[in-house]
Every structure is written in structure tokens, then in C-alpha cells.
Amino acid sequence: MSSYEDRLTALREQLKRDRLDGFVVPLTDEHMSEYVGSYAQRLAWLTGFQGSAGSAVVLPEEAAIFTDGRYTLQVRAQVDGRHWSFQSVPETSIADWLQAHAPQGGRIGYDPWLHTRDWVDRARTALAEKGAELVPVERNPVDAVWEDRPEPSPARLVVHPDVYAGKSSAAKRQEMADWLKAQKADAAVLSALDSIAWTFNVRGKDVEHTPVALAFALVHQDGTADLFVAGEKLGDEVRQHLGNGVRIHERSDFEPYLRTLGGRRIVVDPERAVAAIFAALDGAGATIVTKRDPAVLPKATKNEAEIAGHKAAQARDGAAVARFLHWLSVEAPRGGLDEMKASDKLEQFRREGGDLRDLSFPTISGSGANGAIVHYRASEETNRPIAPDSLYLVDSGGQYPDGTTDITRTVAIGTPSAEMRDRFTRVLKGHIALARAIFPSGTRGSQLDVLARQYLWRAGVDYAHGTGHGVGSYLAVHEGPQRIATFGGGDEALRAGMIISNEPGYYKTGEYGIRIENLVLVIALDLPGAEKPMLGFETLTYAPIDRTLIDLALLTDEERGWIDDYHARVKTLIGPQLDGEAKAWLEAACAPLEAR
């Protein structure tokens, strides 16, 4: 089908054939993943939206697309407003919108493999007030009209060595087994792809930029497990690695297997498992214990090997970013550079640095007004030149076997305005305040978020995204449960060993964007006289911060000291990996700030 309008029309015709008055299209897969394989990109196929989070609702006479504040500009640029209304979450939920717009007595379809049970309950309740019905479908109607829909990836799994994992799969499963005994449960369902990769010490290539494989699993009270994955994806090395304690099944056998678990107590994560899993277990007569996936917290709390690996990956990645920033300082003033050329060059530097397996997400390479689009992705249609007297924002990362990186730098091309320097310095002050934070054990990310925003607030401005997200160990670049945010999460207590981003920003629509992002490690602090356990952050990301954008008059002596100490550390870690003009550039970029 040639146009998105044609696709919307075809879906509406399919809904008529299915006797449905509407359908909900989320951007996820059967594992509630944020980033999904090409076969599950239903929202992008239907609407043209290329972001990583969103949903749509199609009714006979109207359609709406739902995104959060990160995508306010992007969704309007990519989706045709003649056919779609734009809804902002969390201000407007799908359930609320359906309650207001669904036809009286209508039948609204949903795919039970793409929604949580909690979402189904909320939507069903909202529709009931309208006399409407929420109807599970056996075949997704989008799939019925998506003629050239890709097949799921056939890529083979690979072993993630214990030297990087820091703990064997058998040891991880035994810890889960001990936990299951304490819960008086027989088994736990693992459906999140990164939980399965972490538990079994395997990685895959089924989702772009996230090294996971399409699979389901159950871990049992005796430490054994059942792994459901397409047989052609397993070679001899992976089968040998999994061992006798892991029984292999076809992925398609997962739902039938669930239906054999009658009379058993099964742990299911209500946030990460789809409604179809609950339905299968309920139908079998199993007792469902709703608790968090037992891999989530230990996966987020990195061990010594994972921390050491991450630091090694950061050192290589920082050198690649430094080479790129030097190259940018030479090439941008000459003209002829654009967003796509710049992002391609940054990827080249990462590949030349060694061990790069993939980018950790599509590079956000935004010049001028495009930098104000929080999750912008340059394309042939949107590609802008990197022009004089503008700001260039680049948010990027790499997947290495020893760690996952994510870094944002904002660079002045030519001479920045006084407003640009003011806003950048306020963002930097917030970044420093968070990096220097000391807080008691048990503190949640939501309690720290204000530290990064306070100086922007004093100028009457803010940013519409969270301040920090967790990061995996050669896994997902967005990993829970920890976040630093006042909305959409942030309720998890931070623990020593967690890796999280520190990324305040400022975005002036139509003009420029600013973000400064480093990853930080939560560490235990030994404070003299402390009466309770205290935590802080150790910065993990090292690359120069653009000093031409810093308004020194806005900095305190402590903030100046932090910047100088940070740049001294950059020089120590990154300097030995550079030579020639790049090394000389780094020396200048990391020189101490001018004295008052």
C-alpha cells in the first residue's frame, strides 16, 4: 500500500470484516518491549511515526495517536494531522479517550499479546461506562492488512561469557529458585527479553540496537528452567552452554505449556507480562502470584564484573566521542556538514575503536531546530546542515560485549547567543547538582529529580522528559526499574550498583535543543559520623563538555571545581588513546576554566 492514508482505510475495512468498531495499536511486542523487531512495528507501518513509545486508536470516523512529551514535535512532523488527532500522555490516557469517543455499545478490539492485564482492566472499565465492549482478537487486524510484514528474526543466539556476566546462569537460576521457595511458588514466568538474556547469559540479534532474542521462559523452584525459542536459533555452543538444567521448547509451544500448569503457583509480573499469559494460566486453573519478575532487580544491580566491563567500554567509547568532537570542531566551520554525515562519522569512530557490536539506539543528531525534538532521528527528508552560529545536539551510544553506553553532548557551532549560554549553563548546573548528590539509602529517583531542574525553574523554564533512566550490561539502553523522574516512574529506591543516566536538558521549539548526558553508578559512601547508610554517584562517562557554552558568571566555585576535576579525569582516561591534533584538541578542551 502506497500511502499511510491507504493503510488506515484498509485497517478500517478489516475492522468491519472482523465486526469491530475500533482497534488499539500499541508500539510494543509480546514481551512488552520498548524497542521491537521489524515484524512488530505496527504503529510505524500504520501511521509513519518513528518514535520508540506511543499508541494509536482507530475508530470508524476518527483516529488518534498518543505520545508523551518527548515526541510532541516529532509526531506532528511524521504523522498526517488530517487523519490523526494528537493526544498527549499522561494527560490523556487511551482509556479516557475511548470513554469519550468510542461509539455507544461499540466493540473495541485489542491484541491480548500486546497489552498488560492492568491496561485491559482499565480500558474495559472505561468502555463499560459507555456501554461498549473490549474484545480480544485472535489475529491482529493490522497483520491481516500488512501485506509485506517481515518475519521475526531468524538470527542465532550467542553465549554471553561469564567473564562479562560475573555470575553463571545456573547460579542466577538458583537464586531465583531460593526466592520462589520463599514466595511458596512453583515457578516464575519470564517474558521480558532482557530478563531472559540476563538469566541465561545469552544475547541475540532479534531487536535492532538491543542484543536480545525472541523467547519466553519459566524458572522453577528446583533451579531448572524451560526456555521457549525457535529451534533454528540455537547452535551447539548455546545448547551446551544452557546445559541439562534448561529444557528447550519451540517458542510457539509457550501458550500450550502454560495451559498445563493447573494447580501450580506461578509468579507473573503484571508490568512485564501480557494479558494473554494471565488468560492462559487462569484458564488452566493455576494460582497466579503477581510479583515483579525476579530478574529485574539483580539485573539492574550490577556486580563487580559488570561494573568493570562497563568502565572499560566507557573508556573506548569516550575516545571515539572525543575523536568525533575534534573532527566536528575542524569540519563544521568549513561548511558542507549535515546531521546524517555527522552521525555516520561518529559511528565510524566507534567502529574503529574496536569491539562495537551495534549502536545502543539510533543516534539523535540534531542541528538547530531539530535539536529541540527530544528523540529526533535524522532522515533524508529532515536532514539539516550544521550551520554557523547554531547549536548541534548529538545523543548516541554503543553496544559492546562488556557494556552499553549512552552520552549526549551539545556543541556550539560558531558563536552562541547569550540565551544559549544561559540555558546551557543552567542545564550544566543541574547536571552537576545531581552528579554531586549525597542521599540516604532508600531514596527514590523521584526525590532527586528536582536537583537537575532547579536552575531552569529559576528562569521559568523546564524540560518534558525524565532526568535519568537505567542502563543494562550489554543489554537494553533503557532499563528499569530505576529512574530519575517525577512522572512516569521514579518510585524505585536507588541501590549501589545501579547504572543510571544524568541528562537534564532545555528545548526551544523551532530554534535549538540542549542536553548534557553522562551515565553514573550508584555507590555506597563512607561518610564520617553518618548515622545511616548513604549513597552517591560515580560518573562513568568521560568526554569534554563544550566550554564555549558555559557562562562562568553563573557558576559557583564548587561547580567550577567539579568541571575542572571532570575534565582532568577525561584527560587522564581518554588522552592516552589519542594522538596528534586530536590529543592537542583534547588538552585544550579539558584545560581548567578561567580564574575569576
Please give the count of helices. Answer: 19
Can you count the beta strands?
28
What's the alpha carbon Rg, rounded to whole Å?
Answer: 25 Å
Enumerate the spans where pLDDT stays under 50 for 5 or more consecutive residues. none
How would you describe the shape?
globular
Distance between the termini: 64 Å
Highlighted features:
globular; 596 residues; alpha+beta; 6-stranded mixed sheet; 35% helix; 28 strands
List the helices and strands and how they pair.
Elements: H1 4-17, E1 22-26, H2 42-47, E2 55-58, E3 63-67, H3 72-78, E4 85-88, H4 94-101, E5 107-110, H5 117-128, E6 133-136, H6 141-145, E7 158-159, H7 162-165, H8 169-182, E8 187-190, H9 193-200, E9 202-203, E10 216-220, E11 225-228, H10 236-242, E12 246-249, H11 254-258, E13 265-268, H12 275-284, E14 287-290, H13 296-300, H14 304-331, H15 339-353, E15 358-359, E16 364-367, E17 390-396, E18 398-400, E19 403-404, E20 407-413, H16 418-435, E21 438-440, H17 445-457, E22 468-470, E23 479-484, E24 499-502, E25 505-508, E26 512-515, E27 518-525, E28 534-539, H18 557-574, H19 580-589
Parallel strand pairs: 1-5, 3-4, 5-6, 8-13, 11-12, 13-14
Antiparallel strand pairs: 1-2, 2-3, 7-9, 8-10, 10-11, 15-18, 16-17, 17-20, 18-19, 21-28, 22-23, 24-27, 25-26, 27-28
Helix pairs in contact: 4-5, 14-15, 14-19, 16-17
